[in-house]
């Protein structure tokens, strides 16, 4: 199953440096407008992009991965100090075995997966995701909001004096990219330049790296993140040191994601789908152990490097109190019937309930205990001397 969907993702790389510092459409050249139209076309046809931005360098990604590998390779019981189930795990750590893939409970998603051709089928998980995740808030929050739990203060783990600086640096750089992509997409769709970015201001943006233990769970076909879409506006990924991310294009093809050096992978989330009335579809994806993953594990083990697969992920969001509804030319009668107005915070709460992150804290203790037991022997020290050649694909 892990060998299916081997056709590589083939989308252009959009160099966003040409748009940096431009705050109005009057400053855009014909080439700039053409690139924006390319961005919007690519989002419509594939649900994803590959971009380059001058503020985001490979060295920034490597520093971030080093820090997160050190964090995730700690014993499970040590990491549990940063868990905040009472805040729906929207800050701090989410243990393995807590987040439930939506496909297990969403009959519409099950039906959608059932229509995929054999060579593009999803690897259906049998239980909660095996991955850990850390949520770190990025950017300012509103002074007043009806959704305080989605805008909580960040959690800083002990023993990591560099934590805040590393997390803020990577998160803010990625959020800059998200705002640039939002402006480019808006211009490409014929909307005002700030049609999306104005709604993102003071949103509950999250730097949300995942950690997957390839020492314990490195078996071919193991699912770390089951077939799903992201609930937010735009998701951004830097390069991971271990392959395993697959996405589905709008035409149903399942393809592995390979992020070129110095680039970021961007995927549309549910909030962008809502604002465009379905013109852009939230991108489906999964993460699992493949033959390429195992080859990267073999190389990392031989070099004495850490065997945790870390994703350098940012979830950009629409501000919680803003209303999600089709905008501009996307606000057709049909779209408004399908995508009814809802506050972004309510939409997020509904999605979190579906994947078991918004629940009473009582259930969290049992899941945390199971996660701690599952981590048992895996306490490898991570070698910080990582080479660029170790960074393979996302």
Class derived from helix and strand content: alpha+beta
Query: Which whole number gives the mean pLDDT?
Result: 89
Rg (C-alpha, Å): 20 Å
Please count the helical segments. 12
Helix/strand order, N-terminal first:
EHEHHEHEHHEEHEEEEEHEHEEEHEHH
- Helical fraction equals 25-40%
Oligomer: single chain
Largest β-sheet summary: 10 strands, mixed
Describe it.
- It contains twelve helices and 16 strands.
- The protein is of the alpha+beta class and 394 residues long.
- The strands form three sheets. Strands 1, 2, 3, 4, 5, 6, 8, 11, 13 and 14 form a ten-stranded mixed beta sheet that branches. A four-stranded antiparallel beta sheet has the order 7-12-9-10, with no helix packed on it.
- A hairpin with a 5-residue loop joins strand 9 and strand 10 (254-256).
- Helix 2 (58-72) crosses helix 5.
Write the layout of secondary structure elements.
Layout: E1 13-15, H1 30-46, E2 48-52, H2 58-72, H3 76-79, E3 92-94, H4 107-114, E4 132-137, H5 163-188, H6 197-200, E5 206-207, E6 210-213, H7 214-217, E7 223-228, E8 234-237, E9 245-248, E10 254-256, E11 264-268, H8 270-275, E12 284-288, H9 291-302, E13 308-310, E14 313-316, E15 323-324, H10 333-338, E16 342-343, H11 344-354, H12 361-375
Parallel strand pairs: 1-2
Antiparallel strand pairs: 2-11, 3-4, 4-5, 4-6, 5-14, 6-13, 7-12, 8-11, 8-14, 9-10, 9-12, 15-16
Helix pairs in contact: 1-5, 2-5
């Amino acid at each position: 199953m892990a060998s299916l969907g081997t056709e590589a993702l083939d989308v252009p790389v959009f160099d966003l440096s040409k748009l940096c510092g431009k705050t109005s459409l009057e400053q855009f050249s014909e080439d700039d407008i053409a690139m924006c139209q390319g961005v919007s076309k690519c989002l419509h046809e594939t649900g994803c992009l590959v971009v380059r931005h001058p503020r985001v360098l490979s060295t920034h990604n490597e520093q971030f991965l080093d820090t997160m590998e050190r964090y995730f390779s700690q014993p499970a019981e040590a990491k549990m100090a940063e868990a905040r189930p009472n805040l729906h795990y929207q800050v701090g750590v989410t243990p393995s075995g807590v987040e439930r893939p939506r496909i297990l409970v969403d009959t519409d998603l099950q039906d959608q997966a059932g229509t995929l051709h054999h060579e593009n089928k999803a690897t259906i998980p049998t239980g909660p995701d095996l991955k850990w995740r850390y949520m770190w808030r990025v950017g300012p929050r509103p002074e007043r909001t009806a959704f305080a739990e989605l805008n909580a203060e960040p959690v800083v783990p002990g023993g990591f004096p560099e934590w805040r600086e590393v997390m803020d640096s990577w998160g803010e750089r990625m959020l800059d990219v998200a705002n640039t992509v939002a402006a480019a997409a808006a211009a490409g769709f014929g909307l005002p330049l700030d049609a999306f970015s104005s709604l993102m201001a003071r949103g509950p943006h999250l730097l949300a790296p995942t950690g997957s233990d390839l020492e314990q769970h490195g078996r071919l076909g193991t699912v770390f993140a089951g077939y799903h879409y992201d609930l937010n506006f735009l998701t951004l990924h830097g390069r991971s040191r271990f392959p395993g991310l697959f996405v589905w294009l709008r035409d149903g093809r399942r393809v592995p994601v390979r992020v070129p050096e110095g680039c970021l992978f961007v995927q549309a989330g549910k909030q962008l789908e809502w604002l465009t009335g379905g013109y852009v579809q939230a991108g489906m994806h999964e993460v699992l152990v493949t033959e390429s993953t195992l080859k990267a594990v073999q190389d990392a083990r031989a070099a004495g490097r850490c065997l945790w697969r870390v994703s350098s992920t940012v979830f950009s969001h629409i501000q919680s109190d803003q209303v999600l509804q089709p905008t501009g030319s996307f606000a057709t009668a049909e779209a408004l019937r399908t995508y009814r107005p809802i506050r972004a915070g309510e939409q997020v709460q509904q999605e979190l309930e579906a994947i078991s992150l918004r629940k009473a804290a009582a259930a969290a203790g049992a899941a945390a205990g199971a996660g701690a037991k599952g981590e048992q022997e895996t306490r490898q020290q991570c070698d910080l001397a990582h080479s660029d050649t170790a960074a393979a694909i996302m």
